[in-house]
Amino acid sequence: MAERVQISVRRDLYEKAERFIREQGGFQSVEELVEFLLEEALAAGGAGGGETGGGEDEERVKERLRALGYI
Q: CA separation (Å) from 31 to 2, 4, 38, 57?
């Protein structure tokens, strides 16, 4: 398992993430959701070197980000 580090987020974002998990499901914890969002954002943002491979995945990520209030 990869080494872990601790990050801090605003309380209101954490609470939105918890609410999202309760209402939408798909994640076991806020940590799991944050890891998913970071991986997707970095892959889509060019840090990984290009396209993610599908508009459907991108739409799903955008929907999740909207539900969390990020976009």
A: 14, 11, 11, 20
